[in-house]
Design brief:
The chain is of the alpha/beta class. The chain has two domains: 3-49 and 384-438, Urease, subunit C, domain 1 (Roll), CATH 2.30.40.10; 52-372, TIM Barrel. The chain has helices at 78-89, 94-111, 136-148, 180-196, 213-220, 238-248, 252-259, 276-285, 293-298, 306-311, 328-343, 357-372, 406-412, 438-460, and strands at 3-11, 14-23, 29-33, 43-50, 52-57, 113-120, 151-158, 200-201, 203-207, 230-233, 266-269, 288-291, 315-318, 388-390, 421-424, 427-431, 434-435. The protein is globular and about 65 Å long. The structure holds zinc ion. Zinc ion (ZN) binds at residues 56, 58, 119, 233, 269, 321.
Length: 461
Amino acid sequence: MFQGHCDHALLPDGWHANVRLTAGDDGRWLDVQSNVPRGDLAHCGEFVIPGMPNLHSHAFQRAMAGSAERFGRPDDSFWSWREAMYRHAGLVDPEALHAIARWLYCEMLEQGYTRVAEFHYVHHRPDGRRYLPTQAMSQALIAAAEEAGIGLTLLPTLYQRGGFRDEALASRQQRFRCGSDEFLALCEALATPLSARGMRLGAAVHSLRAVSGDSLREVFGASLWRDRPLHIHIAEQRKEVADCLAVHARRPIEHLFDQIAIDRRHCLVHATHANSAEMQLMARSGAVVGICTTTEANLGDGLFALADLRELGGRWGIGSDSQVGLDPREELRWLEYQSRLASGRRTVLGDATHADIAANLWLAASAGGAQACGSAAAGLQAGADADWLVLDTSDPALAGCSTDTVMGAWLFAPARHPPLSVGVGGRVLATQGRHARRSEYASAYRRAVIGLGRKLQDGAA
Ligand SMILES: [Zn+2]
């Protein structure tokens, strides 16, 4: 059991002084008390904040991050990037996925992501034949998360068709496909191994273009998901909105709400092209909107109007998605910056009661992320996952900071230091900014990526 004392801790209602943190054997906070004398308790640090859940990740894409940044053609877009991603996805097997994900999760932890919701759709061999066991790719992710120590919410993902008009899947998409019954059986087989490791099961539907309304209702309506998280990519691309309008005469978010009851179990990833009626639907539902700022920027998706969702009281969190950015500070900083660029104002994502923009962004994103990961509660409070970060006050960027200024300096100044230490489920996993097994995991990752590069060359030759 972990117990420690810190000078200041960022609790759900703001900073508190002299805080005693006690984690239970179940990996959740048992007790968080402020204004407690330190006594004999171990000192955790000066400023302690909650860990950040990463609500959207495709682990295999880590190995291709940065590889599609050369000029291709004048109409280069999300859709041409997707072809490059498919070529890469076609090469990854369970062994490579394990090495890639384990290093990725180690990197996430070092930057302050303490849990990850893995949106996992690469289920089968490249030609669609099943692995033995069928869930070998899921098992690779579970083993990677267990070894790195990150909290995992695994979201096996349903992917069945090539577009809104029931187009057949292309050959390079065959490894994503599951029948609805097969999919539910795969999910059920994962429930026990996940819970035995303190991990969680949820599910995802890849997108409305990849799954019909009938399958969506059948699979998301299963009793297995009564109190588990359910995710979907919803409105990332303008073409996706146009295709949905052409077939259903409804925009994707409207169409989703027509199909099933959306509530706080749901996470709508990339609601980028929501209009104001759709913003109201999402805010009223209690669902979390998943925003992946650096990926959405990298792919030219568009700007999500977070200020509008905030005004309506909507919930949201952040994800690293294609892994081009692995620092939660970068995701949050650019959410505020894109709001400033679009509005010509400053301090857009704050208000009189939430004047500290950085602390406000951190608390809102960590609460939304916890909900999307299926956590019972969020942040530094009893019942929430016992995940925490200690800020590194040896970073010159934090010199002379108080609780009023430290989050602003950490997020918006050129603060170079990652968190000094990172704890997950009551266990310390990184100290002095480094994961204990980083060099071993980095070496295995290098070998895996070099192997994939050889396969790519052989395929091209
Ligand atoms: Zn995604």
